[in-house]
Amino acid sequence: MKSLPATFFARNTVQVAQDLLGKVIEVNSMKARIVETEAYGRDPASHAFKKTPRSSLMFDTSGHVYVYLIYGMYECLNFTTEKVGEPGAVLIRAVEPLQGMERMKKKRKTDDVDNLCSGPGKLCQALGITRKLNGTKVGIGVNVYDDGYKVAKIMSSSRIGIKDAQDLPWRFFIEGNRFVSRAS
User: Fold this and answer.
1) 5 CB-near residues (< 8 Å, 6+ apart)
2) Rounded Cα–Cα distance for residues 58 and 114 (Å)
3) pTM value surpassing 0.90
4) What is the DSSP secondary structure assignment for residue 88, as one 8-state letter?
């Protein structure tokens, strides 16, 4: 498996969101295939709509891990994108467990494999991803690899759980993958 170079992330956020599908992430010696993503740029649904201390990572880096808390309880894994100065990040919405599944089940307190990592909060809990990783470069704590897997068909829809910019079809997922989140 080849680690993705920093230049992979320094591109258009929507393209990176699609290109991450099928790639493998490795965290805490566990591996999973990315099966669902969402792109966020300078739009009303994004943290980068206005530059703030929290969103500055989206403006100032590419190829970095951006982890934040939603609803006061769930961490979400993102990778920063674009060239420095242009904000962007890709939310990892769902992954397919590949290695370390027993540890993931224990962390999530479930034996339901299909429900193990089928949402951004679930996958962070299963993989042990916390805000301690926020701001680190991809490759330090969270690795992303290309193992040659070819995605048959990418589907898109509006992003999930947002009220603004619902017209943007920036949610991408692998058609027919059983690990994609159930929401539509």
Assistant:
1) none
2) 31
3) yes
4) -
